[in-house]
Amino acid sequence: MELTVVMPCLNEAETVATCVRKAMQFLADSGVNGEVVVADNGSTDGSQRLAEDAGARVVPVGEKGYGNALMGGILAARGEYVIMGDADDSYDFSNLLPFVSELRGGADLVMGNRFKGGIAPGAMPPLHRYLGNPVLSFAGRLFFPSRVGDFHCGLRGFRRESAIALGLQATGMEFASEMVVKATLANQLITEVPTTLAKDGRSRRPHLNTWRDGWRHLRFLLLFSPHWLFFVPGLGLGAAGLVIGGIISARPLAIGEVRFDVDTLVLASALVVSGFQSVLFWVFARVYAGSEGFLPNEPYVQRVLAKLSLERGIVLGSIIGIAGLVGLAFSLTNWQAAKFGQLNSEHALRLIVPSATALVVSSQLVLGTFFLSLLGIKQTRHAQIAVEAKIKVSDEPVTAPVL
């Protein structure tokens, strides 16, 4: 069998039969050897019977969620290729040949693009059309080396084995983003074809929740992009803190009537510490995700890790820590000169704040490199060579060698 059309279904009695009939008619008209699978997620409105009467094979999926329903349908599919689409009659199941042609040409994932194919009036809320989808699709292209123009199009085709090999885990609406992200990171061939979006045929509200599901999509994109979640913000914060602190630590800075003094220096210290911690989290995330197979191992990350060994981390952290201790020693000397009395806070904090910051960064660096060493320990499972091995002992007497 060449093609399976998979439709997730949860109480779609008004539209599921129409979608199934359109897909079945496409298979008949195009001569494609295929089937239609409805992955039912616990419908209580008789959707199952309607889908079967229209010609579909209904697969019950007990675990709730859009991603669970789709994955259940994909695993049950018999076709070499799978085209998935919602059963709300918003996608054109009678025009799937562009997807099949791309798959036959070698594509692993074929995305529909509703913005190129055409969106009917009222088919997509203005908030989704002009803000949600464009912003999330832009974030996906920014975070990952992808050229997909419509990250969240529900009509898409793929090779069944290629999709299963991705190890998709998302249970909800973010399943759509996970498929594109993991296919991109796995260097699968992704193409795009125009498709249309019509106003769905249901009288009830859609399952999609604008803010909840939008946040889940964005959260998923961030979790799979530690570079943008940790590294870029951390680098920006750390650099800003160093620049501001470098200026303020020498003398107050006045811009017009605004005066930046030691209170700004404390803020700069917090920026440095937060930025450094964020960059450390980027390293932790890259090492863990690479070892667990969530993200591919990138050469530049490996070069950073090769240079940031435990011993070098301890040495560098110790140097920074010694610099902080020297600064605190000078502060203590100044306090002693004042007979441990009241100090000028503006002068004292200019030395104490950078010194304390250096000590904090030093401890973070040393402890961080220790944690990286723990992450880098490879777990080895030794095979049992012989369960009932017999140890032969020689009967010959053993003479200790003369030294």
Net shape: elongated
Number of helical stretches of at least 4 residues: 14
Query: Which residues form runs of ≥5 with pLDDT under 50?
Result: 379-403
Q: Major sheet, described briefly?
A: 7 strands, mixed
If you compute it from the alpha carbons, what radius of gyration comes out, rounded to the nearest whole angstrom?
31 Å
Strand fraction equals 5-15%
Strands, count: 9
The helix fraction, in percent, is: 40-55%
Q: What's the average pLDDT?
A: 86
- Name the strands of the widest sheet in spatial order: 3-2-1-4-6-5-7
Structural class: alpha/beta
Order of helices and strands: EHEHEHEHEHHEHHEHHEEHHHH
Report how far apart the termini are.
Answer: 78 Å
Output the keywords.
403 residues, alpha/beta, seven-stranded mixed sheet, 14 helices, 10% strand, disordered C terminus
Quick recap of the structure?
By secondary structure, this protein is α/β, with parallel strands linked by helices.
What's the structural blueprint in terms of helices and strands?
Layout (H helix, E strand, L loop, with lengths): L2 E7 L6 H15 L3 E7 L6 H7 L3 E4 L5 H11 L4 E4 L12 H8 L4 E5 H4 L8 H18 L12 E4 H6 L9 H11 L4 E5 L15 H14 L2 H23 L4 E3 L2 E3 L1 H31 L6 H9 L2 H28 L7 H32 L27
Parallel strand pairs: 1-2, 1-4, 2-3, 5-7
Antiparallel strand pairs: 4-6, 5-6, 8-9
Helix pairs in contact: 6-9, 10-11, 11-14, 13-14
